[in-house]
């Protein structure tokens, strides 16, 4: 673990402005924390506390209204809160991953091709990429007869396995997980846990929201509770987050 | 009455990490048709390999802007550059008609909503594709034939019908011929003007799928105009929202759809959902 | 002072039938046409005592070129003795005092419909072709304004496309006459309804050629020593009519463009299309002193 954080979130604030209701919806305000390489932070909070919203604001599906998200990219430090769209697109391609419970399945693309795509984009040879894709499909428990099938026709659970295999095949610097274990069976959950542990060892920083945090208990370094704005380190001792 | 309900989203900075220069740059584009201000000071940048979606209702100026990108029309004011070898700093609106035509034929492909605009209905489909190559100076019949076949195949057009006349084909097939014609010379820029509007929903999905495949395999830079948010959402990396000739909002596609900033965009997105 | 003193004396007709202003108009356009080879020049087409479509364009050019020392040959489909050819030739000589001939070698002006003589023409001769449709783009672009713009841009993609389509549909290029040809590498022209056989004769020819359409009021020209290249695909050679092995049943000449005469039995016999060449060949066999000039085709092969 290096001494400079990978991600420095400072006073991040998100408010939705809803014109048709003439109203504002405050999601969270003044959230600050640091995230180091290889660190796993769990976001806690009751429904509507803004856990997913915070992930999406860092990912920039949502535009923050205040604060900074300083990120140490391979190309230099940048504030994700106000970075240009094309810079965000570049980081999404190269360094930052986001895993949701939904697969963006495209018609007529085979499961193994969907999974191999990030490797192909990174310049890995086709044979090697397909090899790895099949390995991860296997790890997550997708049966070999489905590898060449089109996931748009799969059940939710199978789609999610393909989704995870694709999202986790390439070690990225920062991984945002939005309830990836929903609708997974026990075998796939175990595979996910193994892969996350491996990525963490490789230095990938992870922020996650889990419906059942017990699934990933062994990986959690710190918790941030958005309901009470309390952060906990790997011990059970709790302290207020400096906001 | 407009309530100022709080902070606006942060102003976005200039690109810092992206090392590639934009392929397409338009700046200060304004155009009047009589009393109608069709475009008001529109700026656009499209980077190599990305799909830019332009969304807006009829009369928002989106199609006028696309026509200008295809050099079919010139604005009252404004500059347009494409980063093509040797043409980096040239305002394309200043080109003579001949140069404009050659540049379009070689570097810009377009698919229109109305296939009659893009196709010679009474010539063969393969001939429609070959015409582009002929304009570019290809004079070998066998090469023309092969390249036409290749482009039609890439557009997933059934090759046993490659010599059928477009007028005998279904709407979806006509769009594939247009697409094959547009990509035959491997253009730097592919413009799509409501390419699936008017097609059956199932055919529309297939044509969009072909477009996605092409984009993935060939990394063609695309500008897609549509009033259909579903089409834009499926295809685009970034989105520009236009209204009354102005760009009211632009951003990453998922951001524009999930967290629209402008009242008009919210209305559009909610109307869709 | 009366009006009569200011005007010229009345005369029945101007020299060469056309009045001075008509000839000036034509001369200007003919010079322009020579200056821009293959480019169509619009002109004010006058009335001549002949219906439009019967060679009025060619006739006006000839009447402008002619002088009392000219020797005029007029051919219609290769023959000098057709009613149309004979009438035009007689008319020209009557209004200009020029002499008439059937002999290609002896003519100074050759006005023709559908054929270029088989004997090679010289620098001091002028060929005037009667053209029904001077616009090669008519088939692909009915709008004349747009067609002119296409010529200006050298935008011949659609023309090439029709040739592509012919190969796709029929396996070969079906264009029999008026084969579109690139002049001087710049303008595509339609060389009047001459057969494919005759098009190579225009390439780097020693003589000047005018092509004039009276009804369409446009003329173009191929100056001497100018490239005329039929539009062909690099891997589909230009083919002339398959007449190399045919023999004229009357004169016995072989290897020239023939007219086919269907017979009752279902077969055909052939006669050489350039009738004066046939006559000369006959004269020669009969021992009369006859000079047959050098021909463009030798033994059925183009060899100029």
Structure description:
Chain A has 243 residues and is an alpha/beta fold. Chain A is built from six helices and eleven strands. Chain A has a seven-stranded mixed sheet with strand order 6-7-8-3-9-10-11, with helices on both faces. In chain A, strands 2-1-4-5 form a four-stranded antiparallel sheet, with helices on one face. In chain A, a hairpin with a 5-residue loop joins strand 10 and strand 11 (238-240). In chain A, helix 3 packs across helix 4 (126-139) and helix 3 runs parallel beside helix 5. The mean pLDDT of chain B is 90. A six-stranded mixed sheet of chain B has the order 5-6-7-3-8-9, sandwiched between helices. The radius of gyration of chain B is 19 Å and the shape is globular. In chain B, strand 6 (189-193), helix 7 and strand 7 form a beta-alpha-beta unit. Among the domains of chain C are: 20-143 and 175-227, Rossmann fold; 144-174, no CATH class. Chain C contains eight helices and 14 strands. In chain C, helix 2 (20-35) crosses helix 3 (56-65). The chains are: A alpha/beta (243), B alpha/beta (273), C alpha/beta (304). Chains in contact: A-B, B-C. Chain A binds chain B through residues 13, 15-20, 22-24, 56, 60-66, 73, 75-76, 78-79, 81-91, 106-108, 117, and chain B through 3, 5-19, 47, 50, 205, 209, 212-213, 216, 237-238, 250-252, 254-255, 258-259, 261, 263, 266-267, 270. Chain B: This is ATP-binding cassette domain-containing protein. Chain B: GO terms for molecular function: ATP binding; ATP hydrolysis activity. Chain B: InterPro entries: AAA+_ATPase, ABC_transporter-like_ATP-bd, ABC_transporter-like_CS, P-loop_NTPase, PhnK.
Unreliable spans of chain B: none
User: Which pair has the most extensive contact?
Assistant: A-B, 38 and 37 residues
Query: How many angstroms separate the termini of chain C?
Result: 64 Å
CATH superfamily of chain B: P-loop containing nucleotide triphosphate hydrolases
Helix content of chain B: 25-40%
CATH class of the domain at 20-143 and 175-227 in chain C: Alpha Beta
**CATH class category label of chain B:** Alpha Beta
Number of strands of chain B: 9
Enter the CATH topology name of the domain at 20-143 and 175-227 in chain C. Rossmann fold
Rg of chain B (CA only): 19 Å
| Strand percent estimate of chain C | 15-25%
Which stretches of chain C are low in confidence, meaning pLDDT under 50 for 5 or more residues running? none
Strand segment tally of chain C: 14
Instruction: Report the total helices of chain B.
Output: 10
**What oligomeric state do the depicted chains represent?**
heterotrimer
If strands are numbered along the chain, what order do they take across the biggest sheet of chain C?
Answer: 1-9-8-5-4-2-3
Tell me the series of helices and strands of chain C, N- to C-terminal: HHEHEHEEEHHEEHEEEEEHEE
What is the H-and-E element order of chain B? Answer: EEEHEHEHHHHEHEHEEHH
CATH topology description of chain B: Rossmann fold
């Amino acid at each position: 673990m290096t001494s400079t954080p990978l991600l420095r979130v400072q006073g991040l604030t998100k408010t939705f402005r809803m014109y048709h209701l003439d109203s504002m919806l405050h999601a969270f305000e003044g959230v600050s924390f640091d995230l180091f390489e290889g660190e796993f932070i769990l976001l806690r909070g009751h429904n509507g506390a803004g856990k997913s919203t915070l992930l999406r604001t860092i990912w920039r599906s949502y535009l923050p209204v205040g604060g900074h998200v300083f990120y140490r990219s391979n190309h230099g430090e940048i504030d994700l809160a106000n970075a240009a769209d094309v810079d965000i697109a570049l980081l999404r391609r190269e360094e930052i991953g986001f895993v949701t419970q939904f697969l963006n399945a495209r018609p007529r693309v085979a499961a193994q091709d969907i999974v191999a795509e990030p490797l192909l984009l990174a310049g890995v040879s086709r044979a090697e990429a397909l090899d790895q894709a099949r390995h991860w499909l296997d790890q997550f428990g997708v049966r070999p007869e489905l590898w060449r099938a089109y996931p748009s026709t799969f059940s939710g659970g199978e789609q999610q396995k393909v989704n995870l295999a694709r999202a986790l095949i390439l070690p990225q610097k920062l991984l945002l997980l939005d309830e990836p274990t929903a609708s997974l069976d026990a075998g796939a959950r175990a595979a996910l846990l193994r892969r996350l542990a491996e990525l963490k060892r490789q230095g990938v920083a992870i922020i996650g929201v889990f419906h059942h945090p017990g699934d990933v208990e062994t990986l959690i370094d710190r918790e941030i509770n958005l309901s009470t704005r309390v952060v906990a380190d790997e011990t059970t001792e709790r302290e207020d987050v400096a906001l | 009455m407009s309530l100022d309900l709080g902070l606006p989203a942060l102003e976005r900075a200039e690109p810092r990490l992206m090392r590639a220069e934009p392929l397409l740059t338009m700046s200060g584009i304004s155009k009047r048709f009589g009393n109608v201000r069709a475009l008001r000071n529109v700026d656009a940048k499209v980077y190599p390999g990305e799909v830019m979606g332009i969304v807006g209702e009829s009369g928002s100026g989106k199609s006028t802007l696309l026509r200008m990108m295809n050099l079919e029309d010139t604005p009252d004011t404004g500059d347009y550059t494409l980063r093509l070898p040797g043409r980096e700093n040239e305002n394309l609106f200043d080109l003579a008609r001949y140069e404009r035509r050659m540049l379009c034929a070689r570097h810009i492909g377009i698919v229109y909503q109305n296939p009659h605009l893009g196709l010679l209905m009474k010539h063969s489909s393969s001939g429609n594709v070959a015409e582009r190559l002929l304009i570019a100076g290809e004079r070998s019949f066998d090469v023309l034939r092969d390249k036409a076949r290749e482009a039609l195949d890439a557009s997933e057009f059934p090759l046993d019908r490659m010599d059928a006349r477009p007028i005998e084909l279904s709407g979806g097939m006509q769009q594939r011929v247009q697409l094959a014609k547009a990509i035959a010379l491997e253009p730097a820029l592919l413009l799509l003007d409501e390419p699936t509007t008017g097609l059956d929903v199932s055919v529309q999905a297939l044509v969009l799928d072909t477009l996605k495949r092409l984009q993935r395999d060939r990394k063609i830079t695309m500008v897609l105009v549509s009033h259909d948010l579903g089409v834009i959402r499926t295809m685009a990396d970034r989105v520009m929202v236009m209204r009354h000739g102005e760009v009211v909002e632009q951003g990453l596609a998922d951001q524009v759809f999930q967290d629209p900033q402008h009242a008009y965009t919210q209305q559009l997105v909610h109307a869709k959902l | 002072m009366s009006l009569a003193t200011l005007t010229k004396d009345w005369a029945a007709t101007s020299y060469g039938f056309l009045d001075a202003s008509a000839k000036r108009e034509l001369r200007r356009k003919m010079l322009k046409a020579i200056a821009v080879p293959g480019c169509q020049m619009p002109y004010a087409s006058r009335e001549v005592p002949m219906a439009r479509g019967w060679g009025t364009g060619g006739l006006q050019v000839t009447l402008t070129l002619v002088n009392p020392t000219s020797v005029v040959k007029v051919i219609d489909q290769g023959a000098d003795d057709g009613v149309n050819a004979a009438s035009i030739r007689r008319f020209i000589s009557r209004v200009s005092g020029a002499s008439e001939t059937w002999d290609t070698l002896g003519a100074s002006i050759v006005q023709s419909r559908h054929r270029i003589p088989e004997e090679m023409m010289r620098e001091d001769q002028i060929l005037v072709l009667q053209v029904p449709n001077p616009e090669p783009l008519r088939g692909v672009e009915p709008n004349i304004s747009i067609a002119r713009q296409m010529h200006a841009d050298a935008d011949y993609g659609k023309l090439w496309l029709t040739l592509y389509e012919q190969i796709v549909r029929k396996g070969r290029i079906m264009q029999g006459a008026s084969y579109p040809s690139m002049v001087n590498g710049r303008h595509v022209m339609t060389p009047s309804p001459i057969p494919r056989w005759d098009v190579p004769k225009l390439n780097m020819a020693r003589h000047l050629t005018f092509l004039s359409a009276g009804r369409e009021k446009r003329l173009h020209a191929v100056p001497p020593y100018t490239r005329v290249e039929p539009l062909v695909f690099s891997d589909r050679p230009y083919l002339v009519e398959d007449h190399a092995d045919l023999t004229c049943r009357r004169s016995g000449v072989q290897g020239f463009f023939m007219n086919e005469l269907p017979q009752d039995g279902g077969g055909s016999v052939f006669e050489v299309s350039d009738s004066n060449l046939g006559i000369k060949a006959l004269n020669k066999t009969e021992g009369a002193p006859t000079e047959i000039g050098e021909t463009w085709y030798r033994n059925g092969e183009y060899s100029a």
